[in-house]
Write a structure and sequence with these properties.
It is a single chain. The longest helix has 24 residues, at 247-270. It is built from twelve helices and eight strands. It is of the alpha/beta class and 272 residues long. Strands 3-2-1-4-5-6-7-8 form an eight-stranded mixed β-sheet, sandwiched between helices. It has two domains: 3-167, Rossmann fold (3-Layer(aba) Sandwich); 174-264, ProC C-terminal domain-like fold (Orthogonal Bundle). 57% of the residues lie in helices and 13% in strands. It binds 1,4-dihydronicotinamide adenine dinucleotide and (2S)-3,4-dihydro-2H-pyrrole-2-carboxylic acid. Residues 6-12, 32-35, 38, 54, 67-70, 72, 76, 94-96, 118-120, 172 line the site of 1,4-dihydronicotinamide adenine dinucleotide. It catalyses: L-proline + NAD(+) = (S)-1-pyrroline-5-carboxylate + NADH + 2 H(+); L-proline + NADP(+) = (S)-1-pyrroline-5-carboxylate + NADPH + 2 H(+). Residues 161-265 form the Pyrroline-5-carboxylate reductase dimerisation domain.
Length: 272
């Protein structure tokens, strides 16, 4: 597999780091980006081939990962359309909100497209990615896409593209929800007299410990929560306050808001 990244920023850098750490040779990876600083940073991650000509890259590879900002996708796709039609690589897009049908229209022909929604913990190889393949993608190309995204964490296929909007709401935006909860817990700890440093360390270690336990456990998170919650104890008091405050409904409402916004973004970007 020869893999080319168009756009060599943060996400490309983390995926390249993951690929190389998982045994892919840097000599099989290309990246193109007009920004020399981005390319210099990439070369610190791995000795990949770098350049600024997106079309030259396409003639070298059989998998192209589009890792530019969503608003740039149309202009980049129109520019590489002829080369993609000639070389027929698998196209993997990680841009938020760019529908595979829009991308197919810009590229022309019948391109094989895998659209993914990764998240920022990919930067520390603990990402969670949802993937969707259009009808032109072969079984072998699906395996190639899985291999690439699994290099930075969990990668799961969804059945239809609309589900990627739900993936965006759950895991794409999800790290921010957990960061917000951590901010709130740190502030509460400080308000109760802990130093900022101690409130922060206790909060972050608790988040890490809870996530590790949840991932390793053979029971669901509801059961893990009940096991912390002693009858008439401290956790019960706190959980009752959160439940009475409507935390579950608030999360349902917030994630539905994110899902609807993902739908709106796809429509806005279609017309860009
Ligand atoms: N950061 C995040 O939380 C997530 C980002 N994504 C998606 O990943 C994509 C990339 O995001 P980041 O890596 O965070 O952005 P970034 O800004 O770090 O990287 C984008 C790179 O594209 C380059 N670029 C600009 N014009 C170009 C062109 N014409 N040809 C080639 N390269 C060009 C820029 O110089 C930059 O190095 C975005 O579409 C974003 O929606 C997806 C999920 C999560
Ligand atoms: O907030 C956003 O729109 C993007 C998509 C998921 C994470 N960041």
């Amino acid at each position: 597999m020869k893999i080319g990244f168009i756009g060599g920023g943060n996400m490309a850098s983390s995926i390249i780091g993951g690929l190389v750490a998982s045994g892919v040779s840097a000599s099989n990876i290309w990246a193109s980006d007009p920004n020399a600083d981005s390319l210099a940073k990439l070369r610190e991650v791995a000795a990949v081939h770098t350049g600024s000509d997106n079309n030259a890259l396409i003639s070298q590879v059989n998998v192209v990962i589009l890792a530019v900002k969503p608003q740039l996708m149309k202009v980049v796709a129109l520019d590489i359309a002829a080369a993609v039609q000639t070389h027929q690589p698998l196209i993997i897009t990680i841009a938020a909100g760019v529908a595979s049908a829009s991308l197919a229209t810009w590229l022309g022909g019948s391109p094989a497209i895998v659209r993914c929604m990764p998240n920022t913990p990919a930067l520390v190889r603990s990402g969670a990615t949802g993937l969707y393949a259009n009808d032109q993608v072969s079984a072998a190309q699906r395996r190639q896409a899985s291999t690439i995204l699994e290099a930075v964490g969990l990668a799961l296929w969804v059945d239809n593209e609309a589900q990627l909007d739900a993936v965006t709401a759950v895991s794409g935006s999800g790290p921010a929800y957990f960061f917000l909860v951590m901010e709130a817990m740190q502030a509460a700890g400080r308000d109760m007299g802990l130093s900022a440093e101690i409130a922060q360390q206790l909060t972050l270690q608790t988040a890490l410990g809870a996530a590790k336990m949840a991932v390793a456990s053979d029971v669901d998170v509801g059961e893990l929560r009940r096991r912390v919650t002693s009858p008439k104890g401290t956790t019960e008091r706190a959980i009752n306050i959160l439940e009475d405050g409507g935390l579950r409904q608030l999360f349902a409402h917030a994630l539905e808001g994110a899902r609807v916004r993902a739908e709106e973004l796809a429509i806005e970007l279609e017309g860009e």
